Amino acid sequence: MIIDIATDSHQVAFVGAIFRLIESVGLRSIVEGIETIDQVDRLRRLGCHYGQGHFFSKPVPARELTPLLTEQHATSKFRTWL
Predict the structure, then answer these.
(1) How close are the terminal C-alpha atoms of the chain, in Å?
(2) Which residues, other chains included, contact 39 with Cβ-Cβ below 8 Å and sequence gap of 6+?
(3) pTM exceeds 0.85
(4) Would you list the domain boundaries of the chain?
(5) CB–CB of 43/21 below 8 Å?
(6) Whose CB among 48, 59, 63, 69 lies 3.0–4.6 Å from 43's, allowing a Cys bridge?
(7) CA 65 to CA 82: how far, in whole Å?
(8) Is 82 in contact with 50 (CB distance < 8 Å)?
(9) What are the start-end ranges of the H helices in 1-82?
């Protein structure tokens, strides 16, 4: 649903409406499958709270996840998104 979010006005309208609905009931949103900085920028402007996908990290085994998140949270782009 977000593949063309940076360029498709119909997707922007649809996803924006979903985010507004989510916020109206007091919840926070998370988007999966983010691959580009353009998607991140658009989703942030639309009100997305959290995101995950290849833009942030390639898939990793579960045993590597905690050290990765600890390191990334302290030093990188995760800090501004999460």
Answers:
(1) 21
(2) 2, 5, 6, 55
(3) no
(4) 9-81
(5) no
(6) 48
(7) 15
(8) yes
(9) 9-24, 37-46, 62-75, 78-81
